[in-house]
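Most newcomers find our protein records easier to grasp once they have seen one. The structure tokens are whole numbers drawn from a learned vocabulary of backbone shapes. The record below serves as our worked example for the rest of this section.
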Amino acid sequence: MDMLVTYDVNTLTKEGRSRLRKVAKVCTSFGQRVQYSVFEVTVNAVQRERMMEKLLAVVSQTEDSLRIYHLYGGREKVVESYGRDSYVDFEGTLMI
């Protein structure tokens, strides 16, 4: 399943800055950064549950915001990108 993971972490405190790094690290392990706090993720059901478990263990329910958008139909059908786009399709052919 293709998803967009977005977050806004309160970084006014040392703990918040630590949470920000941890959230980014979790997201990086499941997908790729397309903007500073936005990741495109392709996971199966088990990976999704593991990712959500890790993210919810990091974010503060009272200080932060985490949003997950399900991209039904796949990224190629639901995403329009203008300007610099750093997305790499790892499922397709890679040229080195």
Observations:
- Residues 2-75 form a domain with the Alpha-Beta Plaits fold (CATH 3.30.70.240).
- DSSP finds three helices and four strands in the chain.
